[in-house]
Design a protein that fits this description.
Elements: H1 3-59, E1 76-82, H2 92-109, E2 113-119, H3 121-129, E3 136-138, H4 147-162, E4 172-180, E5 186-194, H5 198-207, H6 221-304
Parallel strand pairs: 1-2, 1-4, 2-3
Antiparallel strand pairs: 4-5
């Protein structure tokens, strides 16, 4: 076997092994994204109804509460960025990071100081590499987040929003995550969690033909909002974590399918080159045999004379 043919066969073997790995990763991601979709669908109604309940309490009372009251002058803002712990997901993480940096630039242009909170090793690595300060970071659960993980993330954020900005607290809380739209479409979005914009929620409910429920407050509207604050933040963060996880699995599936297809195309191309090299070797051997036979015939004919 010629040297060129050995090179092609070695490359075909290597690419075939890679194709098996990417195909397995594609199948794993496909199974995980279905489970993640179910969790998103299960958590969304709770988060939606809790938001409507908070809106109803806020609009039905004059309580000055950080959950529903706009600060007169917002000077500090917390931004929670959701990324993944692992890569191999195309532009999933880079799009979320770009959205967070765009939001940060806009807030800083408004004269606000921004505190960055990050979920996921990819986001943490990005900011650490650039030596940018991170207020809090969480890793290790982005593929399959639980409500306990959401509570762990929400804790420091709730403490920050309850503190006065002069004491190291924040006036606003925003979140950047990847919204799962479909298996083929995921979009990095940003939104403000706190304070809750009562007018926007009420207008959205009105446009859908929904009527905000009426409540009697016991013992008081402020106590009700105090109880709802952690539940609201936790549920919204949990839903965002699930959306981000589903988006990541869908992006991984798409990236691995593309890698598998590319590996197949490369194997076909290398197989053609290997066949051409083998054919060239066979042709050369035949030529050598014919040439040798002709030379032997000439030598024999010369000796007979």
């Amino acid at each position: 076997m010629g040297a060129q043919l050995r090179v092609y066969k070695r490359r075909i073997k290597s690419v075939t092994a890679t194709k098996k790995i990417t195909k397995a990763m594609e199948m794993i991601a496909a199974s995980r994204v279905v489970k993640a979709q179910r969790k998103v669908a299960a958590s969304t109604p709770y988060a939606t109804e809790l938001t409507r309940a908070v809106t109803a309490v806020g609009t039905g009372s004059n309580t000055n509460h950080p959950l529903t009251t706009e600060p007169e002058t917002a000077t500090r803002t917390a931004v929670l960025l959701l990324t993944s712990d692992r890569g191999l997901a195309g532009a999933f993480n880079s799009n979320a990071i770009k959205a967070a940096e765009k939001l940060t630039a806009r807030l800083e242009a408004e004269g606000k100081e921004v505190e960055i909170y990050i979920v996921g090793r990819r986001g943490v690595a990005h900011y650490n590499f650039r030596e940018r300060k991170i207020a809090e970071q969480w890793t290790g659960f982005t593929d399959e987040p639980t409500y306990a993980d959401a509570k762990k993330v929400a804790g420091p954020l709730i403490e920050a929003i309850e503190k006065d900005s002069a004491e190291g607290g924040v006036d606003e809380l925003s979140i950047v995550y990847t919204e799962f739209i479909s298996m083929m479409t995921q979009s990095a979005v940003d939104g403000r969690l706190l304070p809750l914009s009562l007018e926007e929620v009420a207008e959205e409910s009105k446009s859908k033909g929904e009527i905000l429920p009426l409540y009697d407050f016991e013992p008081s509207a402020e106590d009700v909002l105090d109880a709802l604050l952690p539940r609201y933040v936790e549920s919204r963060i949990y839903n965002a974590l699930l959306q981000s996880a589903a988006s990541k699995h869908a992006a991984t599936r798409r990236a691995m399918k593309s890698a598998t297809d590319n590996a197949g195309d490369l194997i076909n191309s290398l197989s053609r080159l290997a066949n051409a090299a083998r054919q060239a070797e066979i042709t050369q051997e035949i030529s050598e045999i014919v040439g040798g036979t002709a030379a032997l015939s000439d030598a024999t004919a010369g000796s007979d004379k």
